[in-house]
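pls ignore typos typing on phone
nicotinamide-adenine-dinucleotide + seq
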Amino acid sequence: MRPFAERARIFLRFHDALLDAQEEILDLIQLESGKARKHAFEEVLDTAIVTRFYAVHAADILAPKARKGALPGLTQAWQYQHPKGVVGIISPWNYPLSMGITDAIPALLAGNAVLAKPDLQTPFTLLWAIDLLIGCGLPEELMLVVAGAGTELGPFILEASDYVQFTGSTATGRLIARQAGQLLTGCSLELGGKNPMLVLADADLEAAVAGAVRGCFSSAGQLCISIERLYVHDSLHDRFLAELVRATSRLKLGGALDWSCDVGSLASVKQLATVTRHVDDAVAKGARVEVGGKARPDLGPLFFEPTILTGVVPGMTLYAEETFGPVVSVYPFASNQQAIELANATEYGLNASIWSRDTDLARRMATRIQSGTVNVNEAYAAAWASVDGPMGGFKNSGLGRRHGSEGILKYTDAQTVAVQRGMAIAAPTGVPDEVFSRWMTGALRALRRMPGLR
Ligand code: NAD
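k done
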């Protein structure tokens, strides 16, 4: 295996090469996914941040660590991290660069090979990124791509992998977990969400409206951490809604391969059908469309207007199910306690957002929300991009974490090596077991009184 410093240099070169070649990959991401250029740029940003983080910090995270030995002074122990072997990475279409490559970077840096399966709809972005990586020095044989239907390739990828990193829907995540369980292969599952945003009574209204627009409509809402439920304090609700409707109606939809559009199109006919079905169902059951609410075939086959709904109640499909489109439901709340309860009333727990001028209060409230990330005065980018911290889901939003030390240690097996000196951990020759047991009992009592030693 190549020395770590050499591996890290490949990824630092990749970081720079990606930033240099961004115009090309921005075009490709837009062409494959339909998103606006500024949302494609979020993928470049994310990939660069994650690459730098692991290239700089992975050596420390993975370095052998001294551990406290069984008997102070007599046992020395170290912890080593060994690569798992082959890491299978199954990724979705919504962030083809970010989701395709950023989980592979820590896997490769930790010394694994990667078998990647992008979504059938977006393989070219990942192939482009791998080509760039190979140009930066990654040995070709360390990252292989298989493109095809997940239902057909999934079982083979699981068989061939020593660990599986999956990003996609909760339904597919359950299937992967079942197969991984059968094979006793570890897996990390990054799944769906129905993410809430809470606007407290003292929030900066203008900032919260701008944050909601970013949170609800980035990548046309096809973002696992995007906001689909917006809870606004009674005292602000009407003003907030009016401002949000105004800001949303000003968004420019379009598919131009430049920076002129605010929101792009949906990624597939399937997505358009789901979004249309969810909105139509809510409207038929009494929800009110404040803005948007319909497809825009005049702009292209897969455009759907950024949509704000009110009057959404249980029984409407999108009340609890992830829409994964540019649709948000706005609800009033009366107290912070009620807001927390509403935020937590979901099977999911991926991301949440709280807006308040009292950031200490918001931080305390954040810890009561059952969600892998919570952003205060930002919708999703602050916590996602704080890649020193872990990212993942509570409840049905997933198992395991990406980012931070968790996001690389999972691709390794931990090993403890202990060296025993002097006395064995057993009765010395000639000492009866009963006597030895008294010595050890005394030693345990002494250790209990000297917590510094243990
Ligand atoms: P999906 O589960 O249908 O597909 C995701 C990937 O899994 C694709 O590559 C697909 O080909 C593959 N796949 C499908 N069936 C498979 C099977 N039986 N075995 C193995 N692989 C299989 O997901 P999707 O609907 O295309 O993606 C959107 C979902 O992904 C949303 O629910 C979204 O919230 C979630 N997502 C989550 C995160 C996160 O970090 N938590 C990030 C992005 C997307």
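The first helix runs from residue 4 to 20. Residues 351 and 359 are 18 Å apart (CA to CA). more later
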